Amino acid sequence: MDMQDRQLGRIHFVYGENGGKYPFNHSLYLKGDKARVVIDPACSLEKLTKLKSEGVDAVWLSHWHEDHIRYMNIFEACPLWISERDFPPLRNLDIFLDWYGIEEQGARNYWKKEMIETFDYRPRQTACFLRDDEMIDLGGLTVCVLPTPGHTPGHLSFFFPEEELLFLGDYDLTTFGPWYGDLYSSIEETIQSIRKLKAVPARRWVASHNTGLFEENPGRLWDDYENIIYRREEKILNYLDEPKTLEKILSAWLIYGRPREPKEMYEFNERVLICKHLKYLIKQGKIILDGNRYAKT
Questions:
Q1: What is the pLDDT of residue 179?
Q2: What CATH topology corresponds to 223-296?
Q3: Low-confidence ranges of the chain (pLDDT < 70)
Q4: How far is CA 124 from CA 91, 96, 112, 143, 190, in A?
Q5: pLDDT of residue 94
């Protein structure tokens, strides 16, 4: 076993390549008496191939993003389980790109190539659906399926009461903060899900990226993570000392702080996150859109 992998009762924490940073993640291997399950198979081709030889009966996904499905196809013979709300992007690559809000044809062509060549995207016409709040008995290992929308509409987290372990998925407690830039992402639901996860009586926590395994309560990291949302909002409001166009706001790089490479990716990310916040601020009555300029109320 890799030094950074951990056996936690019947749960194997599988540490991802690149420290679990994009385009990889950390995975879980659940070894029940009735079924053996891999959650989010995108950690390492070598490690997942080894797990396949040990025996895998099903693949579960926390959500539809590419850095969680990268090596899914090595388990082609296994049933795929996901929230029904998050299944449409896996059925069709155009729907996948639509859900990210990628409209420009050059960007769509780039991401189609990337999805096929890097992430081995293959359309799925069928899947099994994990139900919100259902309890699943894998045999000596119980799983509570927790709906945690916001990051995606059907994002799921998993609580294992016997092991007192909570799999957070992409509510990863990183210093960058939450991602809610997709077409169907929601800032409000993200806040609700962070608070819901914080209240779960766990003893260990697993996030999909970066640190991965927390063996002590993340404590203030929960509040730090949520507060990044409000700091982003505050930066936008402070920048609107006078009415400004969207392009002017984007030029300030209020989310990422400065231009980053690859330029196309980070410009897109900056735009979608800023646009989410502007819509949310309008909804809260803190700003208005006057013609093509945003202004504080």
A1: 98
A2: Arc Repressor Mutant, subunit A (1.10.10)
A3: 1-3
A4: 5, 12, 16, 25, 27
A5: 98
